[in-house]
Amino acid sequence: MSKAKLEYIWLDGYTPTQELRSKTKVIDGFDGKLESCPMWSFDGSSTLQAEGGSSDCLLKPVAIYPDPEKNNGWLVMTEVLNADGTPHASNHRAKIDDDDNDFWFGFEQEYFLMDTETDLPLGFPRGGFPGPQGQYYCSVGGRYTWGRDFVEEHLDICLEAGLNIEGINQEVAPGQWEFQNFAKGGKKAGDELWVARYLLNRLTEKYGYYIELHPKPVKGDWNGSGMHANFSNSTLRTAGSKDVYEAICEAFRPTAKDHIKVYGAHNDQRLTGAHETQSINEFSYGVSDRGASIRIPIATVESGWKGWLEDRRPASNANPYEVAGRIIKTVKSAKVEAVAN
Q1: Which comes out higher in pLDDT, residue 131 or 240?
Q2: What's the chain's Rg over C-alpha atoms?
Q3: pTM of the predicted model as reported, rounded to 2 decimal places
Q4: Which candidate, 74, 307, 97, places its Cα nearest to that of 187?
Q5: pLDDT score of 294 more than 70
Q6: pLDDT value of position 208
Q7: Average confidence (pLDDT) over 76-81
Q8: pLDDT of residue 219
Q9: Which of 76, 129, 195, 274 is at 20 to 30 A from 3, Cα to Cα?
Q10: pLDDT surpasses 50 at 189
Q11: Is the domain of 86 the same as that of 202?
């Protein structure tokens, strides 16, 4: 019987930013189905998820994708459970209240490609800076673009794995890139983004790069990195009412601090009110306003107030499970029935 290699992927217990972990399980006669992936365990004392005297944590498979880089390989996203089968405190996926997948999410993942020899973004010279930002965004050619081979390879791998990546582009600083993914359901959107991040990081191992998700790795007059969260539910997709949209946006105002708490570490360095951000201490929304906390896309307005919203505050290092869970909770709290009627 053929042997399959299942790469179990999970999130560790480090704070304030969880990191990816993985290990390979080899099994006989695997049929490629999620329900055929067995539960597994790991040493939680080595990932800040358990004490040494009682260190077993469980891995519950929740999503599976073919691994294009391995012969008969599979990528298995998992949730971390305690030994008794309850969700671990670090398991934010289990807390998402969206069992009917009514919420759709499109995450815009920005990141910097870093050179392991210089610890600088690609395109940054030793002991200096490149020309000011302006020429790099969506650029082409060796004068303003670095890392395209890597980025294109990552896109190909993600597509071969069945991830719903909807696009890529170079961002406003040298060595800064972005990919976008979309999924129906907060859990699935988080699964796909984490697997895409896993493939992104694994690919760096053969290039001599590493991925920097700090929201402001280059100080000064440079944009930071975000993970803009585009979201909708059936109400937003069918509202047909400016008042409904404003009522939902207003629901985010009293919960602004609760959102910032789960929108990524060091985000205060990015959300300054400059470089296409609103201040971390303010909340605002507006049509086509990239300097607002929440942008109402012009496409939504032109479609008769039917579409989606974009929360521009999440940092590049945010956990998409936490971001999705918090957005869902806030939108569900919005008082829109009376307005809609």
Answers
A1: 240
A2: 21
A3: 0.96
A4: 97
A5: yes
A6: 95
A7: 98
A8: 87
A9: 195
A10: yes
A11: no
Q: What is the pLDDT of residue 340?
A: 43
- Do 25 and 132 belong to one domain? no
| Same domain assignment for residues 174 and 284 | yes
- H or E element, residue 110: strand 104-115
Concatenating the DSSP letter of every residue in 33-84 gives: -GGGSPPEEEEGGGTTSSBTTB-EEEEEEEEEEE-TTSTTEEEEEEEEE-TT
The DSSP letter of residue 176 is E
Backbone angles phi, psi at 207, to 5 degrees: -105, -15
More confident residue, 219 or 83: 83
Q: Please name every residue paired with 5 in a beta bridge, in sequence order, or none if there are none.
A: 26, 73
339, pLDDT greater than 60: no
Strand partners, 74: 6, 66
State the average pLDDT for the chain.
95
pLDDT band at 296; cut points 50, 70, 90: very high
Same domain, 143 and 63: no
* Number of domains into which the chain is organized: 2
Closest CA to 46 of 27, 19, 6: 19
Q: Give the whole-angstrom CA distance, residue 307 versus residue 303.
A: 7
- Final residue of a domain: which of 59, 91, 123? 91
Asked whether residue 84 falls in the same domain as residue 222, the answer is no
The CATH number of whichever domain residue 155 belongs to comes to 3.30.590.10
Q: Are residues 332 and 204 in the same domain?
A: yes
Look up residue 156 and give its two tokens. 């190909």
Q: Mean of the pLDDT values across residues 45-69? A: 95
Q: Which of 39, 70, 91 lies at the terminal end of a domain, its last residue?
A: 91
Same domain as 204, residue 78: no
pLDDT exceeds cutoff 90 at 10: yes
Residue type at 204 in one-letter notation: T
Q: Is residue 68 part of a domain?
A: yes
First to last CA, the chain: 62
Q: Indicate whether 177 and 63 sit together in one domain.
A: no
**CATH code of the domain in which 10 resides:** 3.10.20.70
Whether 80 and 20 have beta carbons less than 8 Å apart is answered as no
Q: Is residue 240 part of a domain?
A: yes
List CB contacts of 37: < 8 A, sequence separation 6 or more.
Answer: 6, 61, 64, 74, 76
Q: What's the domain range around 145?
A: 104-340
